Amino acid sequence: MDILLETQKKVVEKGIQILSSNLTVGTWGNISSRVPKKDYIAITPSGMSYDQLLPKDIVILDLEGNIISGAHKPSTEVPLHLEIYNARNDVQAIVHTHSAYATAMAVARKGIPGAVEDLVQIVGGNVRVNDYALPGTKQLGINTVKAMEGRNAVLLANHGMLGVGRDLEEALRVCQVVEKAAKITILAQLIGGVVELTQDDIDGMRDYYLNSYGQR
Ligand SMILES: [Zn+2]
After folding, report:
1. Torsion angle (degrees, nearest 10) of CA 23, 29, 34, 35
2. Which of 16, 45, 84, 98 is most buried, by the most CB atoms less than 10 A from its CB?
3. What does the angle CA 10 – CA 95 – CA 25 come to, to the nearest 5 degrees?
4. Model pTM?
């Protein structure tokens, strides 16, 4: 199958999974993936519900944001996605959501501490909050890349969260784990506070996740 179409199909499938994961409501949020072996990305169109999307609706862009194919306007957060892809060679896919607990922490502008084991394994440590910038701006992308240094997730101040990964599957899993960690953090604050893991333990668990975890 055509590599563009294959990537478009994967983005559509992930959108449907996100709808059933309670991470998003309506059309808010967006998903993108690099097109393997090409300097292109595939991104969800602006303002279309995930369950209505067909593969051809997914917009293909080059890394400068020029439209290669797709009948619709791409997500308004293209500058955010492009800034990340251009800064991070390790990122193959991006999932951005407005899920409730992560956004609660983003509104409070409180980072998620590195206190939950699955969080530090998949994200690489705590989750920072970026400096506020308006949605749809290049500045939002710049601030996001900065706050996400050495991590696979970030909270977008007064907006939501964003997770990245080696594929769409991992980027979605990052968002699910971050949302759960945000909920746990808020609950733990209510019963006396959070005890953070040491950097040594975080590094050890991250290393294990990257090199030994799963079926290899
Ligand atoms: Zn958003």
Report:
1. 100
2. 84
3. 100
4. 0.95
What does the pLDDT average to over 9-25? Answer: 87
Which helix (H) or strand (E) segment holds residue 157: the answer is none
Please list, in sequence order, all residues whose beta carbon lies within 8 angstroms of the beta carbon of residue 60, skipping any fewer than 6 positions away.
4, 7, 8, 35, 40, 41, 42, 67, 68, 69, 70
Active site residues: 77
CB 29 within 8 A of CB 41: no
Instruction: Give residue 30 CA to ligand 1 midpoint distance, Å.
Output: 7
Structure tokens at 2: 């055509």
Sole residue written with tokens 């994961």: 21
| 190 vs 194: CA distance, rounded Å | 10
Report CA(116)–ligand 1 centroid distance (Å). Answer: 25
Strands (E) across the chain are located at: 30-34, 40-43, 59-62, 67-69, 93-97, 153-156, 160-165
- The proportion of the chain whose per-residue pLDDT surpasses 90, expressed as a percent, equals 86
